[in-house]
Amino acid sequence: MSMYKDLAPTPRTIMTPGPVEVDPRVLRAMSFPILGQFDPEFTALMNETMSMLRQLFRTGNEWAFPVDGTSRSGLEAVLVGLIEPGDKVLVPIYGRFGHLLAEIAGRCGAEVITIEKEWGFVFSREELELAVKQHRPAVVAVVHGETSTGRLQPLEGLGALCHELGALLVVDAVATIGGVRLDTDHLMLDAVIGGTQKCLSVPAGMAPLTYNDRAAAKLLRRKKIERGLAADDADDDPLLRPIQSNYLDLSQLQDYWSPARLNHHTEATSMLYALREGLRLVLEEGLEERFARHLLHEKALIAGLEAMGLLLFGDPGCKMPVVTCIMIPDGVDGESVRAMLLEQFGIEIASSFGPLKGKIWRIGAMGYSCSKRNVLLTLGALEAVLLRHGFEPHRACAVQAAMDVYAAEAAAAEAAAEADVTP
Ligand SMILES: *Cc1c(COP(=O)(O)O)cnc(C)c1O
Q1: What is the pTM of this model?
Q2: What is the DSSP string of 98-159?
Q3: Alpha-carbon distance 209 to 171, whole Å?
Q4: What tens digit of pLDDT does each residue of 205-216 get?
Q5: What's the 377 CA to ligand 1 centre distance in angstroms?
Q6: Nearest to 82 by CA among 252, 217, 260
Q7: What separation in Å is there between the alpha carbon of 72 and the centre of ligand 1?
C-alpha cells in the first residue's frame, strides 16, 4: 500500500493578489486529452487563443500569444528581446515589481536608470515625461498595477512621448489584465505582458503577451535561427547581437505561433486549453462588464472595512481596484490574523514585502475570486478574527455596510432595467 494519500486539497476562499480561485470550466478544460503540437486541431486552438488575446489586450497587433512559464517569464522574454547590451532602460519604481523590472533589465546588460516613488504613491504624468526627456532611454519599462502596494500607474501620454523620442514602452500588466481597463493601442504601448493567475483566473504557468511592429522590428534585427533548423547552415552574421535567451527568444517563439510553425519548445497543451477557456469566459462576460464587476466588489469591500474601523493604506487617488491594502492596527499580530483566517475559515489574504512587511494586509478581489459571496465571507471572518486578537471593530457593521452597497447596486440596476422597457 502506498504511504501517499490521494490528492485532496481543501477548498479555499482565496482573497490574495494571486494565485486566485479558478472557474470550474477552466479546471475541466485542463482534463481533456492531449493533442500533438502540430496537430491541425491544436494549431486551430492556438490561433483562436491569439485572436482572443488581441481582444483582451485591445490591440490590432499581429503578435499576441502566451509564453510558457509564469508571468515573470513573459517579462523576461520581452525585456531580453528588446534590450541590447548597453541600451539605456528607464524604470520608474513604486513598489516591488518595479524593482523586478530593473533587476531583469540589469541582467540583460542594460544601463538601468531608475526613478523611485515612496511606496503607496505613483508618478505624475509630468514626472514620467520629464524622466524620458532627460534620459532618452531606448526602453521604458513600467508596472501598470503594482500588487505590492495596491497602486495603479496612469499611463496616458507616455506612449506618444516614447514614440516621439524613439523609445519602446514595455508595460507589466500582469495583475490588471482582464480586471482593470488597459487599452494597448489607444495608449500606444509597444509591449504588454499579462498574467494568468490574477484577474484571468487561470492557473499560473503561462504569460500572455502582445507587442507591436516597432517591437517586432527590434526582435527581428536580433534574430538567429538555430542550427539544424535553418535551410542552410551559413556562418553566423558576426554583427548579430542575438537575444541572450534561447527559451524566451520571442523572435523564434513568434515563428512557432505563425503559419511557419517553426519547432521550438513543446507547447504546454493543458495550459493552453486552460487559457483558451479562461479567455472565453472573459469575452462571454464582456470586458466592460468585467471591469464594472471588479469595481462593484471593491466598493463593497472598502465600505465593509471602513465600517469596521480599519484604515486603508496608500494614496486613494491611485488605488488599484483589484487589490485593497489595509493598515494592520497597532498591537495586532498581522501574521497571526492571517493564520487564523486560513485555519478557522479557509480564507487566505496576503501580507506584503519590503518596507510594508508586517505593516499591511492585502486583499485581492480578482477574477473568479471577485464575488459577493467571497467579499461578505471575508468581512465577516475578519471581524471575528480581529475580535479574537484584541482589536475592537465596530461590531456587526462591516457585513451590513457591504450588503448596503450590493442592495443599492441591485436597486439601481432594477431602475435602469425599468427605464429601458418604458417607452
Ligand atoms: C504577480 C506579479 C508578477 C509576477 O508574476 P509570476 O506569475 O509570479 O511570475 C509580476 N508583476 C506583477 C505586477 C505581479 O502582480
Answers
A1: 0.96
A2: HHHHHHHHHHTT-EEEEEE--BTB---HHHHHHHHHHH--SEEEEESEETTTTEE---TTHH
A3: 10
A4: 999 999 999 999
A5: 26
A6: 217
A7: 6
What is the rounded distance in angstroms from the CA atom of residue 249 to the CA atom of residue 315?
38
- What Å distances lie between residue 133 and 158, 334, 339, CA to CA? 11, 43, 48
Mean residue pLDDT across the chain? 95
Each domain of the chain, given as residue ranges in start order, spans: 22-282, 286-421
Whether the Cβ atoms of residue 336 and residue 389 lie closer than 8 Å to each other: yes
Greatest Cα pair distance in the chain: 76
Nearest atom, ligand 1, residue 198 CA: 1
Output phi, psi for 14, to 5 deg.
Answer: -100, 110
Backbone dihedral region of 115: left (phi > 0), alpha (psi from -120 to 50 degrees) or beta? Answer: beta
Mean pLDDT value of segment 283-298: 98
Q: Is 174 in the pocket of ligand 1 (CB under 6 A)?
A: yes
Per the structure block, which three cell numbers stand in for 20?
Answer: 486566485
Any ligand 1 atom below 6 A from CB of 70: yes
Q: Between 372-388 and 398-421, two packed helices, what is the crossing angle to 10 degrees? A: 160
CATH class given for the domain over 286-421 = alpha beta
| Number of the ligand 1 atom closest to the C-alpha atom of 72 | 9
Do 167 and 132 form a contact (C-beta atoms < 8 A)?
Answer: yes
Assess whether the C-beta atom of 97 lies below 6 angstroms from ligand 1.
yes
Whether domain 22-282 has CATH 3.10.580.10: the reply is: no
Is the model's pLDDT at 165 over the cut of 80? yes
The residue whose CA has the least distance to atom 5 of ligand 1 is 71
* Identity of the amino acid at 328: I
- In Å, how far are 60, 61, 210, 218, 263 from 259, measured between CA atoms? 18, 16, 17, 21, 11
> In the chain, pLDDT over 70 holds for what percent of residues?
96
Q: 3-class SS at 286?
A: coil
In this structure, of 1-5, 56-60, 352-356, the range with the lowest mean pLDDT score is 1-5
Cα distances (Å, whole numbers) of residue 341 to 8, 142, 359: 20, 34, 17
Classify strands 206-211 and 63-68 as parallel, antiparallel or unpaired.
Answer: antiparallel
Pocket of ligand 1 contains residue 18 by CB under 6 Å = yes
Distance 174 CA to ligand 1 centre (A): 6
Q: Is 75 helix (H, G, I), strand (E, B) or coil?
A: helix
Tell which atom from ligand 1 comes closest to the C-alpha of 147. 15
- The reply to whether ligand 1 has any atom less than 6 angstroms from the CB of 105 is no
- 22-282 and 286-421, same CATH topology: no
